[in-house]
Design a protein that fits this description.
Elements (H helix, E strand, L loop, with lengths): L20 H31 L24 H15 L5 H27 L7 H22 L7 E4 L2 E7 L4 H19 L7 H18 L2 H7 L10 H19 L8 H18 L3 H7 L1 H20 L9 H7 L4 H21 L5
Antiparallel strand pairs: 1-2
Helix pairs in contact: 1-2, 1-8, 2-3, 2-8, 2-9, 3-4, 3-9, 4-5, 4-9, 5-9, 5-11, 6-8, 6-9, 6-13, 9-10, 10-11, 10-13
């Protein structure tokens, strides 16, 4: 919205600053954090009053989790408020990519909200039907993939790129849509599974957002893209503004989510944030790099897949409990040890992922 001020730049040269993505990204970060800080306490108090017993605790989970009983969930509403308010204020609303990413964020957030609502009202960790939930997610993600493909230039817009190889492209054609939808849905659910301990998902999401903020800015800039030998994707630089808002909203939420958490993110936030990151990866043509930068989320979702598959085939468990962060809790790690060590892994993987920008 503030981009409208650029039209007055001829009369007031100081307004030229709004042309710069870096300036608006910083503004989005600060604004999102301010929104969450300002409205966070009121949202938490409202959710606590409405939810009563708060988020149900799994009976088979670590014993230390039972002390968290009564903590309200749906804290993702705080994060989404910061992201949406800040993005609409600082973003270039003429960008197709901006609207596609926000559409996925709101759509996945709505699915997560309904899931949280069912869990709270039924006081069960079983919420929305898995098949129905996935069907809706793929519907939203499929439309987003189609819109991204249409926004780009064929055949590049429907092609899969590979890190370390500048010229290697695999044109998926119409199959790009289900592939991209799988990436977006997979990212959403991977972050959702990671969100099991206070702050565990928040910081890795912020790390991934910062990494893809750099990627989006460089990919959307013809000069930098040419210098780094990465693929130029016109218009994606604007996504840096949204990712800046994610970092700001994450910082604000972490203030209230730090142990002992005053509120949980819930599926409302984790599903939306994962979908957002996945959509940015698809738009910037860095789907494979997402698996590196978001490697922690990949590990989490793979631990669940492996656990379920092996148990069905053999009746035995590979991990003491899945997702894998609970496995380490069962081994005796404290919650803070698991969280901080997983944060370190997320940072290392992000640095490895960013290194692919130069190693071409």
């Amino acid at each position: 919205m503030l981009m409208l001020l650029v039209e007055l730049a001829d009369e007031f040269s100081v307004l030229n600053v709004f042309r710069y993505i870096t300036f608006r990204t910083g503004g989005a970060l600060i604004t999102a954090a301010f929104i969450v800080f300002l409205f966070g306490p009121a949202i938490i108090n409202s959710l606590r009053l409405r939810q009563g017993k708060g988020q149900p605790i799994r009976a088979d989970g670590p014993q230390t989790h039972f002390k968290k009983a009564g903590t309200p969930t749906m804290g993702g509403l705080m994060i989404l408020s910061g992201i949406l308010g800040s993005s609409l204020l600082w973003g270039n609303l003429s960008s197709v990519y901006v609207w596609v990413v926000l559409m996925v964020t709101v759509g996945f957030g709505a699915i997560g909200f309904y899931d949280d609502y069912l869990k709270v009202t039924k006081q069960s960790h079983l919420g929305f039907s898995g098949k129905s939930r996935l069907a809706l997610e793929f519907l939203i993600a499929g439309f987003a993939a189609w819109a991204i493909m249409r926004a780009g230039q064929a055949p590049f817009s429907s092609s899969l790129t590979f890190p370390f190889f500048k010229e290697l492209l695999l044109n998926l054609g119409i199959f790009f849509i289900p592939f991209a939808a799988f990436v977006i849905v997979g990212a959403g659910n991977a972050v959702n599974l990671t969100d099991g301990l206070d702050g565990l998902a928040t910081v890795p999401v912020m790390v991934a957002a910062a990494s893809f903020g750099v990627i989006a800015y460089l990919s959307g800039n013809a000069i930098f893209a040419d210098y780094l030998q990465i693929h130029f994707v016109p218009g994606t630089g604007e996504l840096s503004v949204i990712l800046g808002a994610v970092i700001g909203a994450g910082l604000g939420f972490l203030w209230f989510n730090a142990p002992p958490a005053a509120i949980f993110m819930g599926d409302t936030g984790s599903l939306a944030l994962g979908g957002l990151i996945g959509t940015v990866a698809v738009a910037t043509k860095h789907e494979i790099v997402l698996a590196i930068i978001g490697g922690l989320f990949v590990i989490e979702i793979l631990s669940v897949v492996i656990q379920v598959a092996v148990f069905k085939m053999t009746g035995k468990r590979v991990f003491l409990m899945a997702p894998i962060h609970h496995h380490f809790e069962k081994l005796g790690w404290t919650e803070s040890q698991v969280v901080i060590r997983f944060w370190i892994i997320a940072v290392v993987l992000a640095l490895i992922g960013l290194s692919t920008l130069k190693l071409r």
